[in-house]
Amino acid sequence: MASRKNFQSDNAKYTKNRGDNNSAFNNTVSARSEDSITSFEKNLEKYIDLVSFIRWYPDRFLDMIHPLEGGITLHYDQRVFLRSVVRFTSIYGVFVRAWSKTFLEVLAMCIVAIAFPGISLCLTAQTKEAAAKLLKDKYNEVIRHYPMMKNEIFDSHFQQNDADIIFTNGSVINILANSQTSKGQRRTRISIEEAALLDDVVFQDALKPIPEMGRYTVGKLGVMNPEELNQKIDFFSTPGYRGTTEFSRCLNMAENMATLNGEIVLGADWMLGCWYGRGSTKSQILSKKKDMSPISFSMNYGGKWAGTVDGALVEINKLLKLRTLKESMLENKNNSEIILSVDVARSEKASNNQSSISVLRIERNQFGRIRNVQEVNIINMSNSLNFKDQAIEVKRTKNIYRAKVICVDVNGLGAGLRDELLQEHYDPITGENLGCYDTINSDVKPEIEDSPKIIYEIMAQGINSDIIVNFIDMVGSGKLQLLEKRVNANYDVEDFNFIKSDVVPFMNTDILIEEIANLKLEVLQSGKLSIKQVTKRIDKDKYASLAYGLYYIKMFEDNIYETEEEEIMLFID
Which CATH architecture has domain 43-283? Predict the structure, then answer.
């Protein structure tokens, strides 16, 4: 109640000051000669009405500056979106790919910058590079469709990690990253892009305080208008995983919308944009549905938060926080300690029928203990290859990464791959002798005696519960590190090296996350743990290869090397 009274008091003061100033201005104008009064002064009230109109009806303002030829005509759903952005204290927009979400987001920021002199707006994304690219692309699109808006721009410049749009009225739009590097920055309002990937700890500590200070009006009065949407934070994203903090934030804002607390949640699936003719056609999207996993389609086109269920294998928030690696690894240039782990797929689905090789890099502390395990690449092998061809591919990968051990699940089909790895092979392309391997933990004999012991056999059926427990521990402790989430919207499909290093490994990590999110933990009558696929259409081969490698590393590579001094101190204690 006290805050309400304070607001009413501040509002009254602001209204009184505005009225006093207008009265003083009118008296001054009437005291001057007719010839000395400027056109702006004569039409001041009309300008005030125009600015108020723009602030409340941004779509109508765009209709006013729409070019006579060319340009675009806003659809009804886009008009609702724009009005919601400028009218509500906070908006959570959950829209699918190609709905025009980011374009409308930047368009709304430009309108606000024009209507509120001296305001500072900010677009944030996972990295400053991603934010700069988004702002540049969408700003150019805005100017192309509404060229008259260029008259309001004083200057604009875009670099790889920086972007600024400066308006003639002193307003500014720039970028920040959704990270601790943005801590201490100040802006009037911020718009968070790809909010589903947002870390809530980073948001609370670094991003939420950014719009702490509101905009001061331009002129001698220079007050903070209590009627403005100060401390405004907007969230925009495609749907993410259920159970995350962002999913909870979206639900809380929906409740606040129902109780009229000034917040609003908007969303749509592919059918809305398709109805208006935006993006792919219905037949194209349904064709994508056949080739994509259910989770991936639900999030990118279905407009649904998906994935995790009750009893999930691991907490999805913890899993997503493991995505910290910025670069994949295509070869072992620094003599890193590498373990390869192979799972032979058992999928009956042709599109996902692939064996998986997890490339795991071990980092140790000074005492030889495992500090973290990094999955630096995931390599797929089609099951259309016979066991000999798969063995040749595994041996090639082993030589590229100079791996010390290859873990192979020898249950079922895996035994066929193991048998081929124990044979001598030559590369059919280069003619190179790929060698013959022996096993570390079995009596199976290789073709050539005294071959290097490289193959570690995983009998998953007998130790499945231990493998699951170790995987949960690796995720929970944060020892596992995965490749970061990337959105590569624009790249040359003929740039094979870029696709191989900057696209495929990160996309395979996305699929790995989907597989893990689709797994449900079960407790058997014996008390041991097992996992169950919630949706059979989603395989678990990438999870399996990763889990097998982590189990081997934990059991046989987590060593402690003690110095003589440490041993002496141990006896003294």
Answer: 3-Layer(aba) Sandwich (3.40)
